[in-house]
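Marked as duplicate of an earlier ticket. Keeping the data here for the record.
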Amino acid sequence: MGNYRFILEPYKTPANRHTCISCGHRKTFTFYIDTETGERVGDTVGTCNRLINCGYKYTPKQYFQDNNIQSDVKHFTRQPAKVETKPVSYIGSDILKQSLQSYEQNNFALFLLYRFGLETMNKLIGKYF
C-alpha cells in the first residue's frame, strides 16, 4: 500500500463493491478507507468502476477541502522513489551490421513479412533501424 493513508478499499469479493451513488449500478462503487482506522472516509468518498459511462470519483482530498477539514498533506503524497541511474549501453557496430543481413533467418523480419508483406516490412525495418 506504500505510504498512503487513504486508499481504495481492497477487492476481496463482489461484496466489497457497492451500488454507485451517482449512476446506481450495483457492485461498481469502491469506497476510500483510512488505513489507520480501517473505516470509510465518508459515505460519498469513492469511485465508480464505470469510468467512461459514469465517471464518479470523489477523493478524500476533495472531501476534506469541501468540508473544511484540516488534514496533513503528507497523507496524500508519497515520497518519490530513488531512481538509480544505470550506465547507457550500446550494441556494437559489428553486431549491428550482422543484423542488417540474412533477413530470411531473422525472426523479427520474418514476422513483419508474413504479417504485413514485403513493402511494409522494408519500411518498418528502416524505421526500426
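See parent ticket for discussion. The two ends are 41 Å apart (CA to CA).
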